[in-house]
Input
Amino acid sequence: MEGQKISITGYFLVLDARRSRFLLSKNPFASCFFCGNGGPETVMDLKFTKSYNFEVDDVITVEGVLRLNESDPAYSYFILEKAVAYPFE
Output
């Protein structure tokens, strides 16, 4: 699916105080990968095309182009580029 446009739903997470790094997680913040629940395959970096005002743990649907990360340990295994988000309904 590398390079294909996909749509995925999960929990919105913010990684820094400047709100410049975002993740989509299978689990809410209190039980996400970083807290010991699940593995690195349960999170995805989000590269948005515009700013959003979602709060941590909002359930959102995101569409974008899937990129696989095999070499940069600063990012997740999955990166969603050109991401556009919608509140989950």
